[in-house]
Design a protein that fits this description.
The complex is a heterodimer of chains A (299) and B (257). Helices cover 32% and strands 20% of the residues of chain A. With 299 residues, chain A is α/β, with parallel strands linked by helices. Chain A has two domains: 7-98 and 159-289, Glutaconate Coenzyme A-transferase (3-Layer(aba) Sandwich), CATH 3.40.1080; 116-155, no CATH class. In chain A, helix 2 runs parallel beside helix 3 (55-62), helix 3 (55-62) packs across helix 4 and helix 5 runs parallel beside helix 7 (185-191). Chain A is globular and about 65 Å long. The model of chain A has no long low-confidence stretch (mean pLDDT 98). Chain B has 257 residues and is of the alpha/beta class. Chain B has one domain (9-248): Glutaconate Coenzyme A-transferase (3-Layer(aba) Sandwich), CATH 3.40.1080.10. Chain B has helices at 9-19, 33-43, 84-93, 134-140, 173-176, 213-218, 238-248; strands spanning 26-29, 50-53, 57-58, 80-81, 99-103, 106-108, 113-114, 117-119, 125-127, 143-147, 155-156, 183-187, 191-195, 202-207. Chain B has a nine-stranded mixed β-sheet with strand order 4-3-2-1-5-10-12-13-14, sandwiched between helices. In chain B, strands 7-6-11 form a three-stranded mixed β-sheet, with no helix packed on it. Chain B has a two-stranded antiparallel ribbon with strand order 8-9. In chain B, a hairpin with a 3-residue loop joins strand 12 and strand 13 (191-195). The longest helix of chain B is centred in the first third of the chain and has 11 residues, at 9-19. The radius of gyration of chain B is 17 Å and the shape is globular. The chains are: A alpha/beta (299), B alpha/beta (257). Chains A and B meet through helix 4, helix 5, strand 7 and helix 7 of A and helix 3, strand 9 and helix 4 of B.
Amino acid sequence: MTKLCTLADAVASIRAGSHIALSGFATARCNIAFAHEVLRQAIKGLVISQCVAGIEADILIGAGAVDKIVYGGGSRGRSGQHHCICRAIEQGKLITEELSSLSMTFRYLAGALGIPFIPIRSLNGSDILKKLEQFTPPVVSRVDDPFTGEDWLVLKPLIPDVAVMQVQVADEEGNAWILGPRWDNAEQVRASKRTIVITERLVSTEAIRRAPDRTVVPGYRVSHVVHLPFSAHPSSVYAVYDFDEAHIDEYAEASKTPQGFQKYLDEYVFGVNDHWGYLERVGGLQRLSALEADPVLGY
Amino acid sequence: MVTNLEYTSFELMAVTGARELKDGEIVAVGLGLPVVASFLAKRTHAPSLTILLELGVADPEPIHIGSGLSDPRFWYRAKIHTSFVDMLGMVLHKGLVDVGFLGGLEVDAYGNLNTTLLGDPEGKYRRFTGSGGGNDLASCARRTVIIIRHEARKLKEAVSFITSPGYLRGDGERERVGLLGGPARVITDKAVFGFDPDSKRMRLEAIHPNTTLEDVLSNMAFQPIVPDNLPTTEPPTAEQLRLIREEIDPDRMYAGS
């Protein structure tokens, strides 16, 4: 059964206040086109989660679409902090349920397995844990190991309403290949109630069947498939295109102030009709083709 | 060893960090100088070192320096592309990572590391990266090595936020909260520190060339344990400098100019 639809239709399926698991990591496979469309449709009150924040989280938070983030921290690496996220936290405008990379993954894994809680060694003794202990209803607790009696920290599972997956290759059913490292993506999909796949390349199911070992997202967990090239720009998609350093620099500079960030949105999000308009605005095919990945290097 | 080679303080930190890694070990690295140090160790005395990146990369051999762990330049020629659950879960959490290699904003007298915020956590503060895999490495690796600039505002009696626990307040507190390992070394641009086996307080181990004890102590906000016998850190070799400058970080992204 085909689940192929437009980005606008896929985003329209998301209700205000939903919990969305995002697939980006810093500057890689970020849900940029998706985030832009969420802003154009003015969907608000979201809860977003991911192990390490990507640029899409910064955009959604900067634009005021997010009430709460559940994440393990993150920055753009050498390119600097996520200014909108940092500003929102400093100003107390964002509910921040903050963990670490592994504890986030464990919470998705517990959600994916359908188990009631998951023990972990991380977080113990840290101020991260002290802040998590203040949440009601609780997201952390302690249990005695029934076999040894040892005391363990346990985490509450995460069950997002929707996972949004930026992938290299998918078919119309949503069976998708993720090439390169896939951080928490497989667990996010399996923890979530449904998944929206946004793919760079659309292929036949027959092509998927010929290399099923690459399939990370199972079509039977997918509600919508959107075929949209360069939908992670300016972040990278391994083996398809490199990150756009100049555009990330432009974004980094703009997002240092709320005024600069708003101007960026006015130009690249609200100043265009859709993703195709965005791609023209950032330089069109001439600029984008220069980002195409070398098949040996993957970037 | 006498040398008249010129090198930056970043290069000395990277070389000193590389020496902490033994051949055959598994190291999980954070961004920055730990990456340079790990690739340097692998290309010199530790060819069988396994380098893990938390997001799901094992044993890459980059030919270009990356701007972050998410930069595919750092994933080049890896033996495995996998996931957090595999790297941080089934290797680190299982207790198989020998060294967690981290940088940070602040470290304190007991090796507690802050990468979250500067200022008053209950009042006005500036927000930074947070944990990523840092807390996981500090909690689960067999030992932790920390690289940090030697400044009084970075070397504090107590950090303002414990993102990644060291020995907490010492006196066995780390073991009591159920953590493995602990910090083994703190490498700055002036000195190398270890930790007193009993009190778990930071202890000066070596001073870098052309640095005095007074220079080391006057640029820290706490008094470390100072032993009577203080060796001088071994300077970089010509080959180590060549590898850093020509092969590992030719753009001087991490090793300074």
